[in-house]
Amino acid sequence: MSHLSRTEGDLPTVDAATAAVRIAADATLLTSGFGSVGYPKAVPLALADSDRDLALTVVSGGSVGEEIDVALVEADAIARRFPYQARPQVRDALNDGRIAFADRHISTLADDVGFGDLAEADVAVVEAVAVGEDWLIPSTSLGHTPAWVDHADELIVELNRSQPLDLAAFHDVYRPGLPPDRDPVPLSSPGERIGGSRIEFDPDSLTAVVETDHRDEPYEFRDPTETDRAIADNLRAFLETEVERSPIHGDSVRLQFGVGSLGNALMSAFGDADFGDRDLIYYGEVIQDGLLDLLDAGQLKCASATSLALSAEGQDRLFADADRYAEDVVLRPADVSNSPALIDRFGVIAVNSALEVDLYGHTNSTHVDGSIALNGIGGSADFTRNAALSVIALPSTAASGDVSRIVPMVPHVDHTEHDVDAVVTERGVADLRGTSPRERARLLVDECAHPDYGDRLESYLDRALTGGGHEPHDLDTAFFWDG
């Protein structure tokens, strides 16, 4: 990418404060960013520091940094937030009702915005490594940036000189058409490329270019725990058997893992999996450090995602050898990476975590006690609903063992029993496919629950069964169960 220039043409370059003034106090702000990388930094900070009475609607593709979900929140500048958040400050504000928050599926978010179902798109503020009069090249995430650029009336580009130009080699920009005339995405394999590195736009929409030099505030992955390793061992053994059993995985195994420390640990563990001579392929949302480990070891054929959600060390590692990694890693728009049709087409094995799973397989990923929002559903439902095999992987307990994660009845449902094929904890695996509700309950208690809670779950189930029914519950005690 040595031929690529940071800028091209006559650009409206201004400072962040000047750009921020051009944003209306009640604007709908579409920001780049996914997996806490690739988000704008200077303009959100300028808005937070402006002392204006702001009531912004902020829409991001995924999680972003403190410049948006801390500084703007503390400045009381956000009135409404879509569709995902992962910072304590914004979490507190939406749980207190100070910010109106609505969660949405990643795969449909571009359409939700494009058709005005969430809010009218006013201004897109996106980060780029290079920009011209009618094009830009995104930085460490692609996410919904192509859609935001298409839908917003005005465009502000943050040109981040701390992000290497070599990131252009990772991007594969393809825009799906709009319903009802949307054609199938012409992608025949996860490693194929069908677009280019540039996002093109109407030059009249570009109102400001702001130059910055601030790196992302990326993930910090904790070291794998003994529980993480036990979950990984159980998952690996289950999938080794499944791959041999199912003709879906005749030539290759296509995996997706949810973002976070557990997902990262599970990725790394699959370097030891025995899948015969099958290729190991990743088709998901985020590239995490564990995937770099597999690539470096020659154990992963290719990886397709929408974001380089790496730790600081992972970023340094990728930036130092970007050309080599770009041979096997491709970033796509989120409405392609999370496309239900493509997840189905590629026969993906989806592995996502959760807060808790109930006795019948209903899964809560987002709300503690059914009320307190932690983050958002992200793309977990896109993959859980449409994968060839949907796995929920989680520890059997939380709070140092004081809380069971296998519960009688979840108080909030993100994934229904119809979408979850298997549950894996450090205790074992419950393969729920083809089972009746009563059989599912027994499997989850016997195979996945921690022994400290097994007797209490059995007692609950016995009480529930006295009332009969296809999916028995003791509603008087379901949410007061001592677990």
UniProtKB/TrEMBL annotation:
SUPFAM superfamilies: NagB/RpiA/CoA transferase-like. Residues 314-460 form the Acetyl-CoA hydrolase/transferase C-terminal domain. GO terms for molecular function: acetate CoA-transferase activity; acetyl-CoA hydrolase activity. It comes from the Archaea. InterPro entries: AcetylCoA_hyd_C, AcetylCoA_hyd_C_sf, ActCoA_hydro, ActCoA_hydro_N, NagB/RpiA_transferase-like. Pfam families: AcetylCoA_hyd_C, AcetylCoA_hydro. One of its GO terms (biological process) is acetate metabolic process. Residues 26-211 form the Acetyl-CoA hydrolase/transferase N-terminal domain. Keywords: Transferase. Belongs to the acetyl-CoA hydrolase/transferase family. This is Succinyl-CoA:acetate CoA-transferase.
